[in-house]
Amino acid sequence: MTVIAKQRPFTITMELTHRCPLQCLYCSNPMELISKENELSLDHWISIVDQAADLSIVQANLTGGEPLAYPRLTSVVAQLKKRDIYSNLITSGIGLTEKVLEELVSCGLESIQISLQSANASTAELIAGWNAQAQKMSSLNLALRQKIPVSLNVVLHKYNIDEVGEIIDLAAELNVKRLELANTQFYGFALANRENLLPSEKQMENAVAVYDLKKKQLAAKIQMSWIIGDYLERSPKPCMGGWANQHIVVSADGTAYPCLAAGAIKTLSFPSTKEKSLQWIWEESPAFNAFRGTDWMLEPCRSCEFREKDFGGCRCQAFLLTGDAAQADPVCKLSPHHQLVEEKIKKANAPLASTKELIYRLN
Amino acid sequence: MTDGLENINIVKESVLQFTPGVRLKDDEERQCKLLLMPECIVKLNRSASEVLELVDGQRTIEMIYSELAARYEDDTLHRDLAEFIMDALSRGWIEVKSESIQT
Predict the structure, then answer these.
(1) Which pTM does this prediction carry?
(2) Where are the domains of chain B?
(3) CATH code of the domain occupying B16-94
(4) Distance between CA atoms of A19 and A13, rounded to whole angstroms?
(5) Chunked in runs of 10, what are the mean pLDDT values of chain B (103 residues)?
(6) ipTM topping 0.85
(7) Which of A36, A79, A93, B46 is spaced 20 to 30 A from A250 at the CA atom?
(8) Contacts of A219 in chain B (CB under 8 A)
(9) What are phi and psi of A119, to 5 degrees?
(10) Rounded Cα–Cα distance for residues A14 and A26 (Å)
(11) How far, in Å, CA of A194 to CA of A344, rounded?
(12) In angstroms, what separates the C-alpha of B4 from chain A's closest C-alpha?
């Protein structure tokens, strides 16, 4: 099967390292992490930046793990600048010092996103596995004083969704200009903690009401975005704007994926940038072509009026919940496997707390 | 879309600039202009590009209007431009340069 990529990719996510000082319950990295010995050399990342620019990529997200743990980060940023690719650092803030930040900015870093786990230190510790709140707050303040746009990111779930108002107030107090509230998705490591992390429908309803109100009140002060979680939506999102349609991910060991979670699909073999060019990977690789267009679809997607709008939802979620990545995303109420999602929502709505143990990420 | 913008004092003498972290890029491959910002890319149509190209931290809204009016005879230009500017402000693409606000 040959499917032609409709267009060239716009963005690249570079997972510079999987190492991270935090042990978050909702980690979006895959179950198996890449070890330090298998990380890419600076030369390889430089070559990836060059290939990305030649492939018309215009924006790069530098992430991890914790990208500040990658020792040659500034050189990667400098190369992105040289090739006029917009660079965005996605960091926990751990390891950010004034000197490091100044160096990154002088090398051309264009924006920085720092995460908090909660507005409260004790909740943050429960989520991240250790008390990093003071360090994170200090990094956030440090970045806000620099001449670089700062986004604050908070991943939401059962433990912190009730404090959405508090989180927004904290952001306003700190004079943060961009706030991203992202509901946990259950693809990577987070799936192991799903029963503990999925909020109840009542919690979600309350949180959305608080968000809508504050967004209006603070519109002139903060740019806020709310990233919905799949489970409580009951209709699939157009994941990644379609499989391998806009975005390419290069993982810490050089493997390329159409999205951060795709490594979970064990029935596909993903190409390595050590063996193939980014252009070949984008245009020719079987993995990137696997779910382009609509020919791969099964029913009910194949004849669904929304097939060109939501592309059947998330392929990773389909694989993780049904074992077949070509199935409709089970969050869709039309999916024959939708019951799998409803069962989890029912559990999350129950007044009794989950008895499942929390599983922390061990790095 | 413009909820909460009541606090921004906009007059025709207001100078517009890009919000820090937002910039225009010429995309030769795609033959259009892109607006790049943190974790977002906007592919601009021709009219949006023409307005945003004039946003430079120097020109006032009035100056932007006159330049566009000189290019096109269009009865709705005034209204369209006002709508676009309000929309771009509310999306956080551009902002009013603070020292330029005249009351």
Answers:
(1) 0.93
(2) 16-94
(3) 1.10.10.1150
(4) 16
(5) 58 93 95 94 95 96 94 88 93 84 47
(6) yes
(7) A93
(8) 3-5, 90
(9) -80, -15
(10) 20
(11) 8
(12) 5
